[in-house]
């Protein structure tokens, strides 16, 4: 029975990474005045693309296909979030909050996947998920450590009536 859940959760994780790719691409396009944030988003976008590839590899090895429906659903959700963010004058702050929350969501998913893979005696899945977990934890830690600074920078720019404060 645990193999069925592992398969479903791997598909979910793959869709989650596809959603993350779209969200990160959209954020990176619109961040001009926050170079440290932009650089970290670009770095994590690269990591996220490799995470999806790693998941595809272990899924192929186990004979599990990705779910086109789940992947598309994740991408559509990311698109909706991106469009909604573009309309907000405080997009950089709201994006930082949403990104931190999403990283915590990913961390929880990978912890569950690791437990399921251990239970199903799938050491390669455990190894890959632990690698990905470390990257997600590093991104969440970075966002946690920089949200205060990003918020203060935004508020300073907004107080100066900088029309580009959201970027």
Automatic annotation (TrEMBL):
<dbReference type="InterPro" id="IPR009078">
    <property type="entry name" value="Ferritin-like_SF"/>
</dbReference>
<feature type="coiled-coil region">
    <location>
        <begin position="6"/>
        <end position="65"/>
    </location>
</feature>
<dbReference type="InterPro" id="IPR010287">
    <property type="entry name" value="DUF892_YciF-like"/>
</dbReference>
<keyword id="KW-0175">Coiled coil</keyword>
<dbReference type="InterPro" id="IPR012347">
    <property type="entry name" value="Ferritin-like"/>
</dbReference>
<protein>
    <submittedName>
        <fullName>Ferritin-like domain-containing protein</fullName>
    </submittedName>
</protein>
<dbReference type="InterPro" id="IPR047114">
    <property type="entry name" value="YciF"/>
</dbReference>
<dbReference type="Pfam" id="PF05974">
    <property type="entry name" value="DUF892"/>
</dbReference>
